[in-house]
Amino acid sequence: MKGRHYIGLLALLLAGLTLSQGSPFQQRLQQAIQSGGSKFAEAMKQDPDQALCSQYRDKIPAALVGAFLERQRALIKYPADGKLMGDWKQGEALFTNPRKGNCYACHTGDPKEPGAGTMGPGLVNYGQRGTSEAVVKYTYDKIYNAWASMPCSLMYRAGYHGILTPEETAHVTAFLLDPASPVNAKR
Amino acid sequence: MGRFWRLAGVILLALVGLLALAQEEVDPFEEAQKQKQQLLELSGGILPTDLIAAQGEELFKAKRGPKNASLEACDFGRGPGRLEGVVGRLPRYFFDTRKVEDLDSRIRSCMINLQGLRPDQIRRNEVVAIAFYIASLSNGQPMTVRPLMPQEKRLYELGEKLFYLRAGPRDMGCASCHVTYVGRRAGVLPYSDILGDKRVASHWPAFRYSNDQAWTMADRIRACYSNLSMPAPDFYSEPIIALTLFMNAKAYGGKMDLPGFIR
Question: Which of A21, A62, A170, B42 could cross-link with A86 by S-S, CB 3.0 to 4.6 Å?
Fold first, then answer.
């Protein structure tokens, strides 16, 4: 009996040791990434959910979805004044700035803006949903952290990565929802 | 006018409209071919790639470096001095350096080992020109990269992993655009179907006519990371060789179009 306990304990220790060191494949992967240079290696460090999305190639098992969404929802921050709809004009600039939102690389916003991409759904007339509290919050949350509503969505997490501040997220929300925004102009 | 003619007119208009719609999304390969023809006619039969390859040939055959040697004894996998078709066989494992090397890093290794140059003396534009010269001797040959050596298999696995790895401030990786969203556009540019269309990996190194650049696959990979707001991996580093090995092996059997001529 006692011997078996020892073997069990030893197995547990060994398992712990292997896990803490990562698999040989993981080690080789890390070495390879390191050889690309320190800045590259730094940028390639994944957070746990980026790692999950990579591991399952964007289709994570149903059993993991609930906890994934909960973790992502917890990352959303809101403006201090609680206003989720800001200034649509500032939002427009953030929407088209490649260094900031860069939203138009994938979504049409103002249909007059040339060169919009087609990776994401078109957003012309997005404001027809109205500006109820629920719609505003859904839109804000989606922009701040797209993975809080759809795990491993292609859409990057602008607020979580600090590319948009909560206030800036509110401006982009307004660009999509404000009836005065060109997104919602009468055509 | 009779009803028939009105109807015929409407149908004709609809057909013309459809044709125009169909032409709006141009096939990048056809478009590049057209541009190449235009350039050939304008220049009297000389392409920028010919000039780069000629410059590369000169560099390849010149006696240079502390050892005053040319690169003609460099072994690209078919034995010293045999250059035909080698691009379609790279990256591969080399016993002398005990590394898996792609075209760029093999050229660099030979500059170091045969010519005695120090790594910091190796100029990137020279490596690119030599790569274009060697590529010009692989045109029309098949892509035959198949990871068989354990070192090649390991690097292939790493390349696959890196290809699907999402990271950085835009939460993206190679596969996000080149697999999941193939057929869509970011901005005005369509994505190449890297794993589905063997022509894509089979046209590097290539000249990009839209911005007058001579690029090898390494430049392409580095630019992709920059587009994802990430610092690019160093030239000649493992991530680049691993990704190239993965993509080239996936293009097994493709016909090399070299040096490539692309947007």
Answer: A170
The answer to whether the CB of B135 falls within 8 A of the CB of B259 is yes
Per-residue 3-state assignment (H helix, E strand, C coil) for B76-145:
CCCCECCCCCHHHHCCEEECCCCEEECHHHHHHHHHHHCCCCCHHHCCHHHHHHHHHHHHHCCCCCECCC
In angstroms, the Cα distances linking B37 to A25, A109, A136, B117 are: 47, 37, 53, 40
- On average, the pLDDT of chain B sits at 89
- Phi/psi region, residue B111 (left: phi>0; alpha: psi -120 to 50; beta: rest), is alpha
B48-61 vs B124-136: helix axis angle to the nearest 10? 100
| Cβ contact, residue pair A40, B161, below 8 Å | no
3-class DSSP assignment, residue B191? coil
A121 has a chain B CB within 8 A of its CB:
no
pLDDT band at B23 (very low <50, low <70, confident <90, very high): very low
Q: What pLDDT is stored for residue B207 in this prediction?
A: 92
Report how far residue A163's alpha carbon sits from residue A153's, in angstroms, rounded to the nearest whole number. 17
Are A29 and B161 inside 8 Å of each other by CB?
A: yes
Asked if A60 has any chain B CB less than 8 Å from its own CB, the reply is no
Mutate to test the interface with B, among A30, A38, A46 (most CBs of B within 10 A): A46
Q: Name the residue ranges covered by the structural domains of chain B.
A: 43-262
Q: For A105-128, how does the pLDDT look when each residue is reduced to its tens digit (9 = 90+)? A: 999 999 988 888 888 999 999 999
B181 → chain A, closest CA residue: A119
What CATH homologous superfamily does B43-262 map to? Answer: Cytochrome c-like domain (1.10.760.10)
The string of pLDDT tens digits covering residues B189-204 is 788 888 988 888 889 9
**Residue A130: inside a domain, yes or no?**
yes
Structure confidence at residue B67 (pLDDT): 97
Are A140 and A170 spatial neighbours (Cβ–Cβ below 8 Å)?
A: yes
Q: Cβ of A35 and B234 within 8 Å?
A: yes
**Is B74 designated active site?**
no
Asked if A57 lies within 8 A of B172 by C-beta distance, the reply is no
A-chain CB neighbours of B161 within 8 Å are: 25, 29, 54
Q: Among A38, A119, A164, pick the best mutation site for testing chain B contact (most B Cβ within 10 A).
A: A119
Q: Which domain holds residue A135?
A: 46-187
Whether A111 maps to a domain, the answer reads yes
* C-alpha to C-alpha distance for B5 and A147, rounded to whole angstroms: 56
pLDDT tier, B19 (very low <50, low <70, confident <90, very high otherwise): very low
| A67-104: pLDDT as tens digits | 999 999 999 999 999 999 999 999 999 999 999 999 99
